[in-house]
């Protein structure tokens, strides 16, 4: 048997093995147990959205994995991370005086950061969120809440304290996804990473209520 033929056989065998491994991985990801493990709280949210119909929910999640599972997130340069972090800080500092404007800016910032990482552009919000749910399932719902609040202006003078507090809470929840997106990860996976702002204990270092002093 010639050397060339041996090499060809080895290459074909390697391709077959790789294809089998990828098929097995996709099968595991699409199984009910695999979907629950991969999506975590997002799995329960989608099941509830489908009125408890787990088959319909699992079909939707399987389609998300098929569309976005192979997406490779582009690492951010150090300068990019610093620029995005500075923009978050600026928007956060404006919250007390202009909560709606602050929330809108954060919503825009998250869409931009996600696009920079390789997710669908912010103009394709639903597709972007679907892709984020595949790779950052633990934190994507905070982005949804922030986007919903940002899209429902409450009006300056008529704005209630409850509305302002809701926006503040939405920003706190959205911070987890922001940290996940801009924090370098040795393993490349986005889930369960400690965030840039982890030392705040989950609270933004400011108050939405003028009657309370800013936290140090």
Key structural traits:
216 residues; mainly alpha; 2 domains; 9 helices; 64% helix; disordered C terminus
Q: How many distinct folded domains?
A: 2
Q: Look at the structure and give the mean pLDDT.
A: 79
Number of strands: 0
Structural class: mainly alpha
Helical percentage: 55-70%
Strand coverage percent: under 5%
Kindly provide the radius of gyration, computed on alpha-carbon positions and rounded to a whole number of angstroms.
21 Å
Q: What's the total helix number?
A: 9
| Main sheet specs | none
- Taken from the alpha-carbon principal axes, the silhouette is flat
SSE sequence, one letter per element: HHHHHHHHH
* Residue runs with pLDDT of under 50 for 5 or more positions: 187-203, 207-216
First-residue to last-residue Cα separation: 76 Å
Overview of the molecule:
With 216 residues, this protein is mainly alpha-helical. It has 2 domains: 3-68, no CATH class; 78-200, no CATH class. Helices cover 64% and strands 0% of the residues. It has 9 helices and no strands. It has helices at 3-30, 32-39, 41-49, 54-68, 78-93, 99-116, 125-135, 140-150, 161-182. Helix 6 runs parallel beside helix 9 (161-182). It is flat and about 80 Å long. The model is unreliable at 187-203 and 207-216 (pLDDT under 50).
